[in-house]
């Protein structure tokens, strides 16, 4: 999984999740660090750069222990955007 080199999942934010046709997807704002080929200079006020993306899991037959998105109260960021905390919480 070379695409995760330089990606800090513990610092990435969950924006949503879904399950359809045996595919589970988690939309994230990925925390990208200099080791990643996707790294760019952080925006003013950020300590690393962030990119929107998804983790997709194909051929999923069942899911256990994952909270439903509707059961989680999103956090409201100062800019008005919502997220569901980091992936460890979700």
Automatic annotation (TrEMBL):
The organism's place on the tree of life at top rank: Bacteria
UniProt name for this protein: Uncharacterized protein
Organism expressing this protein natively: Vibrio azureus NBRC 104587
Lineage: Bacteria, Pseudomonadati, Pseudomonadota, Gammaproteobacteria, Vibrionales
